[in-house]
Amino acid sequence: MYMKKTFLQGFTLIELLIVIAVIGILAVGAFVALNPGQRLQDSRDSRRWTDVTAILEAIKVDQVDNQGPYFPALESAAAGATIRMLGTCAATSNCNAAPACADAPIIGITDGIDPAALATEGYLASVPIAPAGAAFDSVKTGYYIVKNTNGTIKIGACDSENTTAISVQR
Q1: Strand 153-157 relative to strand 143-147: parallel, antiparallel, unpaired?
Q2: Residue 10 is assigned to a structural domain of this protein
Q3: In what side-by-side order are the strands of the sheet with 82-86?
Q4: 146 belongs to a structural domain
Q5: For residue 83, how many other CB atoms are within 10 A of its CB?
Q6: Domain range spanning residue 86?
Q7: Residue range 21-60, pLDDT digits in tens
Q8: Would you list the DSSP string of 4-29?
């Protein structure tokens, strides 16, 4: 009688280890190429751009609805390129404790302009706070506002990670 030899098919341990090593090398290469730290910085800057644009749009829509004047806190602020922090900080609570603004000297920030009226009137869902800010909260939001003498408004972010300055003006 013949004895039939059967071979078991499968992978050897060496083959499995080689495949796992190659997959690991490819994963490390992809992780380094994607640079997750850079992507996180980009996403925070994107949020800042969105917030700055939303604040300016809310101010302008409120201005149109009020047939000319800005919301009361901004209307009472003196024009003339005075930089003010968006938030509830006052000169006595040291608005200057925030990080330096990319677009303007922080020394110019003397007090805050509270945009809460824009949120309560429905122009903003809530007052935005800059992401990953060192000292940003509802008192010092990390966004600044400049009311120019010609009637334009400039909104900017006090910090940015990948761009030189984040600001819009209209």
Answers
A1: antiparallel
A2: no
A3: 112-113, 82-86, 143-147, 153-157, 167-169
A4: yes
A5: 21
A6: 37-169
A7: 999 999 988 888 888 888 888 888 899 999 999 999 998 8
A8: PP-------HHHHHHHHHHHHHHHHH
Q: How many CA atoms lie within 13 A of 4 on its CB side?
A: 3
Give the alpha-carbon dihedral of 95, 97, 99, 100, to 10 degrees: 70
- With a cut of 50, say whether residue 106 has pLDDT above it: no
Backbone φ and ψ for 63, nearest 5 degrees, come out as: -65, -40
Residues whose CB is less than 8 angstroms from the CB of residue 41 and which lie 6 or more positions away in sequence, other chains included = 161, 162
* Strand 153-157 to 167-169 pairing: antiparallel
CB 165 within 8 A of CB 100: no
- Structurally, the chain folds into a number of domains equal to 1
Classify residue 31: in a domain, yes or no.
Answer: no
Contact 158, 100 (CB under 8 A): yes
Which of 164, 157, 4, 170 is CA-nearest to residue 83? Answer: 157
Contact 163, 157 (CB under 8 A): no
Block residue for tokens 């969105």: 50
Please tell me which of 16-25, 77-86, 102-111, 147-156 the model is most confident about, judged by mean pLDDT: 16-25
